[in-house]
Amino acid sequence: MWNFSFTGRVLDIDGKKLKVWEQLTEFLDFELGQRRVLTRVINMENNLQSLLRICYELDPEDFDFDDSAEAGFAEELAEEHYCHEVQLTAILGERGLGPEYYHHETQFQEE
């Protein structure tokens, strides 16, 4: 049982409609105040399957951040982790040691 299930949702990533076929994992990172999810998706145009990694920030008030500076530091650290993960995935994919990296993007939700 997931805290938030992406299964069945259609996401627009890089101009492509991807339908979440199955949610594989969900991890709540208390230190960074974010949730990370791994899903299996289907491209609705060509039926190709892919893995999609989703990271999203949660309300900082729900975590043990002492002040806004600490929350800002956690946000910067989360961004660094994200960038390193993208770089590592691309390198491993290029060398045939993991899935082929396709694309990443950042989306913002209005408050």
Topology:
Layout: E1 10-13, E2 16-29, E3 34-43, E4 49-57, H1 68-94
Antiparallel strand pairs: 1-2, 2-3, 3-4
Number of strands: 4
- Low-confidence parts: none
**Head-to-tail CA distance between termini:** 27 Å
Largest sheet: 4 strands, antiparallel
Strand content: 25-35%
Helical amount among residues, as a percent range?
10-25%
Strands in their spatial order, largest beta sheet: 1-2-3-4
In DSSP terms, counting alpha (H) and pi (I) runs of 4 or more, how many helices? 1
Gyration radius over CA: 15 Å
Which structural class do you get from the secondary structure elements?
alpha+beta
Domain module tally: 1
Describe it.
The protein is built from 1 helix and 4 strands. The longest helix has 27 residues, at about 70-95. The two termini are about 25 Å apart. A hairpin with a 4-residue loop joins β2 and β3 (about 35-45). The protein has a 4-stranded antiparallel sheet with strand order 1-2-3-4. It has about 110 residues and is an alpha+beta fold. Helix content is about 25%, strand content about 35%.
